[in-house]
Amino acid sequence: MEQKAKALVGGIKKNYFIAVTLFPAILVLGGFVYWPAIHSFYLSLFRTRLFTAVEFIGFQHYVSVLTDPIFWIGVRNTVYYAFFAIIGGLVIGLMMAMILHGSMRFKGFFRTVFFAPYIIPMAAYTLLWWWIFDPRYGLVNIMLAWIGIDPIPWLTSREWVLHAFILMTIWKRAGFHMVLFSSGLSTIPGELYEASLVDGANTVRRFFHITLPMLRPVTLFSVIMAFLHTFQLFTEPYVITRGGPGHASTTIVYQIYNESFQRMNIGRASAMATILFIMILLFTWLIMRKFDLKEL
Questions:
Q1: 202 sits in which H/E element
Q2: Can you tell me the distance from the alpha carbon of 74 to that of 250, in angstroms, rounded to the nearest whole number?
């Protein structure tokens, strides 16, 4: 009986300690994540005067958004940009990680150089690439001229502007993926590769049958982080193109900004934000289902 009482008291103390230590994090998440999301959904159901709900209108804002062709242009641009930026960043990040995983000199130096773009502030990195993509004096077009290719209007052409943003994102985030993949490669037992050599497996087979399967948890995390970042593309179109030319670089988040702070229609902007949240939730679920967490 006495042992049960001690166990009960110990359990209460343990739960109390957990509650006390988690309370600050729960408070921060509730105040800066969950409550704003709930309040945004609430405002999406009203006509608003700035951030004040004035008149309940149900789902009229959602109907207005979903029947707006400009919104669907933003969705298309966002999905296209996210797809190629994620694939490019993951592939180049994995390539860099595998190169640096081997025995080579100055490994720490190269890791620092490759990771450095990730820590550059967004506005500074955007202005840097705005200069690099300059049609007359930009570094990219100068390098293309060396091999006989005419200058490309990266930021003023409907056909090229999203590709410019994709290249910018790959350059900035590939180092982040490199660090993740490097940590994953270091956890793969060397015995697996030794056994595959005995079985006569070549480099390609070892990569597809050992390296990639063992990197599934890291790859899942990298994909989700890249997905969350790319679906919130805003700084590049805001600083460089203002969503243009035309609507070629308009994204969902850029439209939310315009609706909120240019047109001051907080209710409609909240509806867009809620739709974006549902899209991110759905795509994240599909990604996690594709990776089949039970097998990780």
A1: none
A2: 5
Contact between residue 272 and residue 259 where contact means Cβ atoms under 8 Å apart: yes
List the beta bridge partners of residue 47. 55
Q: Which structure tokens are listed for 156?
A: 């003023």
The CA distance from 91 to 156, in Å, is: 28
Cα–Cα distance for residue pair 223/287, rounded to 1 Å = 8
Token couple for 194: 């030794």
Give dist(CA 78, CA 65) in Å, integer.
16
**Structure tokens belonging to residue 68:** 């707006």
SS3 label, residue 131: helix
Give me the pLDDT at residue 204, please: 85
* Residue 261 dihedral angles phi and psi, to the nearest 5°: -105, -10
Cα(65)–Cα(75) distance, rounded to whole angstroms?
11
pLDDT value, residue 248: 93
Residue 212 and residue 219: Cα distance in Å, rounded?
9
What is the pLDDT of the chain when averaged over all its residues?
87
User: What pLDDT is recorded for position 1?
Assistant: 56
pTM assigned to the model: 0.88
Residue 270 CB-density burial (10 A; 0-12 exposed, 13-18 middle, 19+ buried)? buried
Structure tokens given for 272? 């867009």
List of E strands, the chain: 46-49, 52-56
Give the pLDDT means over successive 10-residue stretches in the chain (296 positions): 56 70 82 85 88 88 94 95 95 93 80 91 91 87 88 90 95 94 89 81 85 90 92 92 90 94 91 93 87 60
What distance in Å separates the CA atoms of residue 169 and residue 87, rounded to the nearest whole number?
11
